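pipeline: protein-struct stage 2 | run 1193 | Histidyl-tRNA synthetase
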Amino acid sequence: MKYRRLTKEQFEELHQEFINFLATQSITHDEWTNLKVNKPELAETELDVFSDLIWEGVLNKAEYLEHFAPQHMYLFYLGENNMQAIVVNVKNEAIDITTQEGYDWLRENLMDDSVEFLQADKAYTDDKNLDKFKMIEQGAVITKGELFNYFNNLIN
């Protein structure tokens, strides 16, 4: 398994897609029920393969990631050949931008001396999607890029 198995909730959301996946494997409902009981290791393999396919599709489409920490906002544009990162650092430890109050403070005080902006490009490893997945596993979320584009325009 390349990524991680989808959660029970994710499988429930993707119920129809999983049925279609099993159909492409020529596995009927009755055969699936039988597999789960009599060959659970094979059923587990099918769940893992389906999970990897879903993750691969999601990661291929992901263009932006965001990750918030109490004093840092990490914004990523996932380009074709590399990632572009914008990091917003709040050097005032009394401010926690993961709270609404702290986030509001940041919005109102972007030009404060305690706020700094950093930019960097980072090359992907040999497996671009695995790089993206690792960031998601560390807490990043896929977004539409509004914050990245806002800060990119602000500092460039």
